[in-house]
Design goal:
Rossmann fold, alpha/beta, Hypothetical Protein, Haloacid Dehalogenase-like Hydrolase, Chain: A, domain 2, 2 domains
């Protein structure tokens, strides 16, 4: 049992998929009520997601959360103000796009204002975005036309071929987020980097922060904050990075975790 008091923590970061939003694309009512109680206690509430800003806007509106760490930590906004902005090097972006094109592997490139895809229609992209994430299929943008800042990629290829990319791009970090796809960020990049920037901006120490997550790209942030909480439905490799594991998302996991540490 944790013996904490409300003043111990000043900010809570929430992953989206599998943490705030369940497989049916819904936010449990107990989660909504818990977030409302946090706000009433003047605790900062922040989304921390691998999604781009355009992909999380409907979630932030539904929960009335106006601060977020997005694109796996490379782009952070606090109440409308950009406080952290780390796109991938332009040369790396062009090289990866060309390499994927040579192998005819679909890629999704994520910017701060949109999400784009290299193939007009591809079943694997459709499966992950439309069927799994319940998002619109990304906008087609011819690979040679990518001129905007890119913060991360989603690569669609068999896992054994992913090693070829890792060898070719040692300055990038690959995380398998779905059986069909890997998330690509800068080497050393993580949600923890964006969280660190936000904590510095707000003059809050990591020990005063809480984070909830369930996926492989949540490991760094769970171990970085003072109270990392894994969902019961989290990937087994994630749970050792958390202080404890709460209940399943559909079993009031957010409410239970916040209650256990004394925040609600």
């Amino acid at each position: 049992m944790f013996t904490t008091i409300k003043d111990t923590y000043k900010i809570v970061f929430f992953d989206i998929d599998g943490t705030l939003v369940n497989k049916e694309g819904r936010i449990p009512m107990s989660t909504k009520e818990s977030i409302k109680k946090l706000k009433e206690s003047n605790i900062e509430v922040v989304i921390a997601s691998g999604r781009g800003p355009s992909q999380l806007s409907h979630i932030s509106k539904e929960l009335e959360i106006d601060s977020f760490v997005s694109l796996t930590g490379s782009y952070a906004v606090y109440k409308g103000e950009i406080i952290y902005n780390q796109p991938l090097p332009t040369s790396t972006v062009k090289q990866l796009i060309e390499f994927a094109s040579q192998n005819d592997d679909p890629i999704v490139y994520l910017g701060s204002e949109g999400v784009y895809v290299s193939h007009i229609e591809h079943p694997h992209v459709h499966e992950t975005f439309v069927n799994w994430l319940r998002l619109d299929y990304p906008m087609y943008l011819q690979p040679t036309s990518v001129e905007i800042p890119i913060y991360q990629f989603l690569l669609y290829c068999p896992q054994d071929r992913e090693k070829m990319y890792e060898e070719q791009f040692s300055d990038l970090h690959f995380i398998r987020w779905h059986p069909l796809s890997s998330e690509i960020t800068s080497h050393g990049g993580s949600k923890a980097k964006g969280i660190e920037a936000m904590l510095n901006y707000l003059d809050i120490s990591p020990d005063e922060a809480v984070a909830f997550g369930d996926a492989l790209n949540d490991r760094e942030m769970l171990s970085f904050v003072g109270m990392g909480i894994a969902m019961r439905n989290a990937h087994d490799a994630v749970k050792p990075y958390a202080k404890f594991t709460t209940k399943h998302i559909d079993d009031d996991g957010i409410y239970y975790g916040l209650k256990k540490i004394g925040l609600i």
